[in-house]
Amino acid sequence: MASAPASGDLSDVATTDLMTELLRRMKCSSKPDKRVILVGPPGCGKGTQSPILKDEYCLCHLATGDMLRAAVAAKTPLGLRAKEAMDKGELVSDDLVVGIIDEAMKKPSCQKGFILDGFPRTVIQAEKLDAMLEKQGTKVDKVLNFEIADSILEERITGRWIHPASGRSYHTKFAPPKVPGKDDVTGEPLIQRKDDNAEVLKSRLEAFHKQTKPVIDYYTSKGITVNLHAEKSPKDVTSEIMKAVS
């Protein structure tokens, strides 16, 4: 959709874009508010499910890495502070990240709620997020925990092959190319991302479990965690999610 000029003048925005957005907002107005956190290891399917959840409930998708980059690019006061830390090679503080999330939530696209992905990663971050939401008079409704065995993830991830020029992806078991190692369309060789190997995955999973378990325990004690069977087909996982958040 074409973005409106900074002045708020909509005269140059195409009528079809305006109507599409208007109809979307009318459809969204009757939807209940939802504030959802997605937790899961690499390759668990969060990237497949979040757009479906976002569209169904008219939520905004907040990925902290993207938001940090956007705040830095927009030179917001918080973005400038984040850039200063990043330039020094320091980690951006939890308070800054929560501030940037707070800022993002004020946008019209987040009016019906949000999906948070990649945050909180620690219990301290979860507590700071809760405190910020409490000030707004809201709270996290559901934490969706994409549970899946490491061995299944290894099979999913180490079998991935990419055609670099187009981004087309294949899987040796689940979606093999017609000719092994070659792109179906161009016949060019496929490559594997350097992160998509068993060794890298093992260390990423170890870090994930160590870091995330306390966060899941924190939300479980509040009674808002739902454990999903992320090894099921995407369609089955979608219906589990819809049941969990409805």
UniProtKB/TrEMBL annotation:
Origin superkingdom: Eukaryota
EC number: 2.7.4.3
Residues of the signal peptide: none
Reactions listed under catalytic activity: AMP + ATP = 2 ADP
Gene Ontology molecular function, alphabetical: AMP kinase activity; ATP binding
Enzyme class, spelled out: transferase
Domain Adenylate kinase active site lid: 160-195
Gene3D superfamilies according to UniProt: P-loop containing nucleotide triphosphate hydrolases
Entry keyword set: Chloroplast, Kinase, Nucleotide-binding, Plastid, Transferase
UniProt keyword annotation of Chloroplast present: yes
PROSITE patterns the UniProt entry points to: ADENYLATE_KINASE
Pfam families in the record: ADK, ADK_lid
Family affiliation: Belongs to the adenylate kinase family.
Xref: NCBIfam families: adk (TIGR01351), PRK00279.1-2 (NF001380), PRK00279.1-3 (NF001381)
Chain's role: Catalyzes the reversible transfer of the terminal phosphate group between ATP and AMP. Plays an important role in cellular energy homeostasis and in adenine nucleotide metabolism.
UniProt name for this protein: adenylate kinase
